[in-house]
Design goal:
CATH class: Alpha Beta
Number of strands: 2
CATH topology: Sufe protein. Chain: A
Distance between the termini: 19 Å
CATH architecture: Alpha-Beta Complex
Order of helices and strands: HHEEHHHH
Structural class: mainly alpha
Strand order of the largest sheet: 1-2
Largest sheet: 2 strands, antiparallel
Number of helices: 6
Shape: globular
Helix content: 40-55%
């Protein structure tokens, strides 16, 4: 299993190869397009992330000692960033997730170009990822 520190290093290196924030955001949007869509049964109010101007749904799962995260959104940029986070943290044990905040998004210039509402939604998604991992950390 690749540690989050290694995943972060690889992701920052890959995104840093892109010349500017527009190229990085375009890459993130492409990632979101490739991320599997949630089935309609998961697009429910209990899975909706509040605080985002767009619809963003988040479905966490704990299985075999690791957290797994799925998401979807009706906005390409939101789905791209959310899928980046879900992919980054999925397959990791709770303690590993709790040790690594998503500061790499700022390091590569992604969060700086988001509207306040989108940054708020991103913060809420991170809070849900973290809270789910914390709830399963003792398992």
């Amino acid at each position: 299993m690749t540690t989050l520190a290694e995943k972060k290093r690889q992701l920052v290196a890959k995104l840093s190869l892109l010349d500017d924030w527009q190229d990085r955001m375009s890459h993130v949007v492409d990632l979101g397009r490739k991320f599997p869509a949630l089935e309609d049964a998961c697009r429910t109010p209990e899975h909706r992330v509040e605080g985002c101007i767009s619809n963003l749904w988040f479905v966490p799962e704990f299985r075999d000692g690791v957290c797994r995260y799925r998401c979807d959104s009706d906005a390409a940029i939101v789905k791209g960033i959310a899928s980046l986070l879900c992919d980054f943290y999925s397959g990791q044990p709770p303690a590993e997730i709790l040790r690594h905040e998503p500061s790499f998004l700022a390091e590569v210039g992604i969060t700086q170009h988001l509207s306040p509402n989108r940054r708020n939604g991103l913060g809420r998604l991170w809070a849900q990822i973290r809270d789910f991992a914390a709830a399963h950390a003792a398992a």
